[in-house]
Amino acid sequence: MTEPMMAEFVKAQAPTTESLLLVDTHVHLNFEGLQENLDSVAQNWRQAGVARLVHSCVEPSEFAGIQAIANRFPEISFAVGLHPLDADKWTSDSAQQILELAQSDQRVVAIGEMGLDFFKAENRDRQIAVFIAQLEIAHQLDLPVIIHCRDAAVEMAEIMQSFWQSRGAVQGVMHCWSGTSEETQWFLDLGMYVSFSGIVTFKSAVQVQASAQRVPSDRLLIETDCPFLSPVPKRGERPNQPAYVYYVAQQMAHLRQVTLETLASQTTANACRLFKLSLPLEPVGAASTGVANTNG
């Protein structure tokens, strides 16, 4: 999106977003398209009402870069973990590395993103082993997990159920959720939160929209998964950015027949509870755009 276009978006939404506090629970600001423009991207998310962000991690080698971004923008908390599509990068030292990184910075609020991705996968056993190893780390540290699940809901639910019974429950979120209503209930029964991205705004995403209506108000989260999956009315634009979580919230409010303010309040409270986040001490978008760094 060009700067003039973003300015028009902010101007159009200003009367509404002044009273909103939103949390984007899944971003990748270190990816190409965002990292080189972070100052303007941050200005956009602040003007759009985004008070806190949770930066996910694809592999532990990203940790230092994510940490550096959080040093610049105190509203950012982050995770550390290994994505299932990178499961083959797991070594005998990976568990200890993730454990130590998670303990090295108080701004680490989760383990992830982790999980299973069986879409075109040829390493299912490897993914499962890495997933369980990271569940162990989260259980040990009493941190929530950020879970990626694609074409693997049955296997994932079975693994989690077994882990919960043998080791104890782990809190967390099914991120960028696109499962069926039935699958959604499996993970709700396991105590998980469920987060919806720009996919929920797509006209064809009837299954996702049904799932979004099923999740109880105290388990619901919203995200962009930027720089991917720009929501309607910005679909097709790259990169997606945290400011656009507003459109996800707007669609979720419509689907659930509540006001935007109610949806924002519910999802922000849920994000703060799950990730132990604190809200800013002054309105988002204030002249100083300052946010209290209470997580680190």
What does this protein structure show overall?
It is a single chain. With 296 residues, the protein is of the alpha/beta class. It contains ten helices and eight strands. It has an eight-stranded parallel beta sheet with strand order 1-2-3-4-5-6-7-8. Helix 9 crosses helix 10 (260-275). It is globular and about 50 Å long.
Order of helices and strands: HEHEHEHEHEHEHEHEHH
| Biggest beta sheet summary | 8 strands, parallel
What topology, given as strand order, has the largest sheet? 1-2-3-4-5-6-7-8
Specify Rg, calculated over alpha carbons. 18 Å
Structural class: alpha/beta
N-to-C CA distance: 32 Å
- β-strand percent reads 5-15%
Number of helices: 10
Question: Helicity range of the residues?
Answer: 40-55%
How does the overall form come out from the CA principal axes?
globular
Question: What does the average pLDDT come to?
Answer: 90
Strand runs, count: 8
Low-confidence stretches: 1-16, 283-296
